[in-house]
Amino acid sequence: MPESPLLCSSPDTWLTCVMDNFDQFLLDHAAAEKKAAGMALSMLSHYPDRTRLVTAMSELAVEEMVHFREVIKHIQQRQLQLSADKKDPYVNEIRSWIRSDSEVYLLDRLLTGAVIEARGAERFALVSTALPRSELQRFYASLARSEARHFALFLDLAQEYFAEDIIDARWQELLIAEARCLQTLPIRAALH
To answer: Taking a C-beta distance cutoff of 8 angstroms, is the pair 155, 43 a contact?
Structure first.
C-alpha cells in the first residue's frame, strides 16, 4: 500500500463517532461509493481523447460499483434502507478548489481525486482496525488498500499529462488546504 501523503491524521473522535453510529456510516459509505463511480464516468466522458485516462476511469467506475454492491449487502443484512444522497461537506470543499481554467482543470480534478482517495484509504484502515475480526473487518481492510491504489492512480495519471514541477507545487497546496479543511469541518459518522 502506498504511503499516505496526508499532512494530518483523522482525529480519534471521528473513529469513535463512526463506531458509535455504524449504521449511519454504512449508509454514507454507500453514497460515497456511488458518487465515486459517477465521478470516474464523468472524467472519462469529459476526456474521451485521453486513452489511458478513459481506460483507468472505466476500470475505476466498475470497481467503485463493486464496492457499492458490497456495502449494500452489509446494509441489507442490518435491515437498513438507502436514503436520498446528501451533500458531502468535505468533498464539496475539496472540489471547490478545482480551478476552472482549461489548462489546469484536468490537473486539479486528478489531484483533488487523489486527496479524497488518500483520506478514504486512511479512514477505511482506521475502521478496519476498530472492527472485530469478521467479514466486515476484512472488507474494510481491502477497501483501504483499494483507496490507496486509487490515490496513486490519480497521481500517476497527473504525471502522464503534466510536468512534475507543476504537479508538485499544486499537490502541496492541496495537501495543506485538505489538512486545514479536515480540522475545521464537524465530526460526522461519514467517510468524509
So the answer is: no
- For the segment 88-103, what is each residue's pLDDT rounded down to a tens digit? 999 999 999 999 988 8
Instruction: Look at residues 128, 125, 156 and name the one whose alpha carbon lies nearest to residue 60.
Output: 156
Q: State the amino acid at position 172 in one-letter form.
A: Q
Q: Three cell numbers at 188?
A: 460526522
Q: For residue range 5-16, what is the model confidence (pLDDT) as tens digits?
A: 999 999 999 999
Distance, in Å, from the CA atom of 186 to the CA atom of 114, rounded to the nearest integer, reads 22
Ordered domains of the chain (ranges, CATH): 12-184 (1.20.1260.10)
Do the beta carbons of residue 65 and residue 30 sit within 8 Å? no
Is a pLDDT exceeding 80 seen at residue 1? no
**Helical segments of the chain, H only:** 12-20, 22-46, 51-77, 89-95, 102-130, 135-161, 164-184
> pLDDT at position 102, please?
83
Between CA 79 and CA 73 the distance in angstroms is 10
Nearest to 174, CA basis, from 83, 110, 85, 127 = 110
CA–CA separation, 100 and 167 (whole Å): 16
Q: How far apart are CA 112 and CA 110, in angstroms?
A: 6
Q: Do you know the residue count of the chain? A: 192
Q: What single-letter DSSP state applies at residue 8? A: S
Q: CB neighbours (10 Å) of residue 184?
A: 9
